[in-house]
């Protein structure tokens, strides 16, 4: 009996040794931090990210200016991806320590809640309704509805649209907004509806409509593809303040993201990123941090 | 948007669908008959052209044809003024291929003796087609033409993609405003308002002309 017990103890000891050996390289002792974020307390999401050694960031894959899976390079690129890389650089000292996952409008909030991604930068407008579900960083971009017109068009803004034909997509917010503006300003705009923005732009190419309207970041995508053909005019006549989404209650991570965005804005790197991805003649000042301060024009 | 408004837009859409259907039928019948006759013409190049036409339009989907007429042709300087005109042209040209096949089958179903009789009377090919073959072939063509035209009425819905304000366009428009589903169901039923009487008309003509035979 005693022999059997000691044998089992020996076996158990050997097993424990093997397990310890397996765990040794990672696990409880994290790799030394090269980034600027101090090691976060156990149990926080930031600590989990630091232990893992890379950030998992959700972006869109179909918006050429913000998050776009470039078929030529097979890399995801855009404004939102730059934000993810800046956060990774802050945490790890390496902008490449990031894994991009596709997060579309429908699944991005569940992804945060379930921990599929650590943060979401996917053209997401900050609003009260979403603030009940997740936390938002400070504002990193203010998008808004604008106008796409041919490069040689005399249209410079909403007031030039009197009696003109403006294309957009069926059932979109843009359709409602342009009708409301037309009524309000007495512009008598003829709104022409299509199934997709590509079809609306093709119709404009054929001279069927005088302008196409929707969020500027989508319009800038068309300018990126054909810079000699199109321009965005008229400023923004609705306001969509974008923020990075973080799971509720992860203050350490939220603080890191906020610090990164504030530094991007104050150091001038924000303007560089803007210039790189938004094909506009002028580079605006970075937006204020508080989304409520971004007033309706 | 009130329920009355929804009905207003749907009925406007129905009216446009009806006009679009009739105008496209006119183009398809005229062009299709011509192409169908060319299919049996004694001149080989004309036969080849007609066969190529039928094969081309029968084998491609309708949506690209409409988008091409609406957004593509203006770049080549061919510009039909409105989206409605573009849809009539696209639907007409497309459906003509199907009409042409019906016409060819009808012409070939006329008894060979009729052709020999017409030729022995010294008729030219156009005379023979117009005076002998088509009047007899028309009877045979009625049921398949009915099928082609009913398909045409349903195909008009594709014109919503090029912003023709027909029934489907208006249904999608009011749904975008009200977030209600029922307007789409009503739109489906309103298509029947056109197609069921059309079916009835075809059956009626078929019966009437059979008595004359």
UniProtKB/TrEMBL annotation, chain B:
Keywords: Amino-acid transport, Cell membrane, Membrane, Transmembrane, Transmembrane helix, Transport. Residues 14-203 form the ABC transmembrane type-1 domain. InterPro entries: AA_ABC_transptr_permease_3TM, ArtM/GltK/GlnP/TcyL/YhdX-like, MetI-like, MetI-like_sf. GO terms for cellular component: ATP-binding cassette (ABC) transporter complex. It is a multi-pass membrane protein. One of its GO terms (molecular function) is transmembrane transporter activity. One of its GO terms (biological process) is amino acid transport. It comes from the Bacteria. The chain crosses the membrane at residues 20-38, 184-205. It is found in: Cell membrane. NCBIfam families: HEQRo_perm_3TM. This is Putative glutamine transport system permease protein.
């Amino acid at each position: 009996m005693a022999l059997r017990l000691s044998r089992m103890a020996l076996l158990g000891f050997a097993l424990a040794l093997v397990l310890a050996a397996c765990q040794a390289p990672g696990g409880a002792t994290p790799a030394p931090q090269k980034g600027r974020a101090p090691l976060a307390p156990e149990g926080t999401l930031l600590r989990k990210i630091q232990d893992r050694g890379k950030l998992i960031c959700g972006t869109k894959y179909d918006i050429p200016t913000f998050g776009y899976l470039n078929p030529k390079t097979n890399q995801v690129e855009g404004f939102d991806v730059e934000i993810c890389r800046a956060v990774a650089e802050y945490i790890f000292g390496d902008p490449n320590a990031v894994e991009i996952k596709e997060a579309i409008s429908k699944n991005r909030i569940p992804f945060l809640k379930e921990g599929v991604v650590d943060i979401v930068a996917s053209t997401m407008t900050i609003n009260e309704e979403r603030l009940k579900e997740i936390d938002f960083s400070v504002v990193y971009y203010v998008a808004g509805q604008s106008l796409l017109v041919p490069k040689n068009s005399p249209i410079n803004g909403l007031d030039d649209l009197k009696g003109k034909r403006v294309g957009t997509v069926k059932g979109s917010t843009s359709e409602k907004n342009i009708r409301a503006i037309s009524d309000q300003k007495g512009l008598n705009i003829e709104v022409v509806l299509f199934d997709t923005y590509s079809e609306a732009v093709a119709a404009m190419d054929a001279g069927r409509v005088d302008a196409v309207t929707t969020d500027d970041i989508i319009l800038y995508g068309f300018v990126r593809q054909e810079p000699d053909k199109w321009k965005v005019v008229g400023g923004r006549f609705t306001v969509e303040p974008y923020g990075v989404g973080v799971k509720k209650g992860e203050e350490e991570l939220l603080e890191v993201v906020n610090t990164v965005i504030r530094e991007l804005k104050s150091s001038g790197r924000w303007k560089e990123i803007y210039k790189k991805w938004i094909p506009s003649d002028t580079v605006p000042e970075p937006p204020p941090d508080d989304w409520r301060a971004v007033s309706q024009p | 948007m009130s329920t009355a408004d929804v009905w207003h837009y749907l009925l406007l859409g129905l009216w446009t669908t009806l006009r679009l259907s009739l105008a496209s039928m006119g183009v398809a019948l005229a062009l299709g008959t011509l192409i169908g006759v060319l299919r049996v013409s004694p001149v080989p190049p004309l036969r080849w052209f007609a066969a190529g036409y039928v094969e081309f339009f029968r084998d491609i989907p309708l949506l690209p044809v409409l988008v091409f007429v609406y957004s593509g042709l203006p770049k080549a300087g061919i510009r039909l003024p409105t989206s409605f005109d573009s849809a009539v042209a696209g639907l007409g040209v497309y459906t003509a291929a199907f009409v042409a096949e019906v016409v060819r089958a009808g012409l070939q179903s006329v008894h060979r003796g009729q052709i020999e009789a017409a030729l022995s009377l010294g008729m030219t090919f156009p005379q023979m087609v117009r005076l002998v073959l088509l009047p007899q072939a028309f009877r045979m063509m009625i049921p398949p033409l009915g099928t082609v035209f009913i398909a045409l009425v349903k195909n008009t819905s594709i014109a919503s993609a090029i912003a023709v304000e027909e029934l489907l366009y208006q249904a999608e428009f009011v749904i975008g405003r009200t977030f209600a589903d029922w307007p789409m169901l009503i739109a489906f039923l309103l298509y029947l308002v056109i197609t069921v009487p059309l079916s009835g008309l075809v059956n009626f003509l078929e019966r009437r002309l059979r008595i004359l035979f």
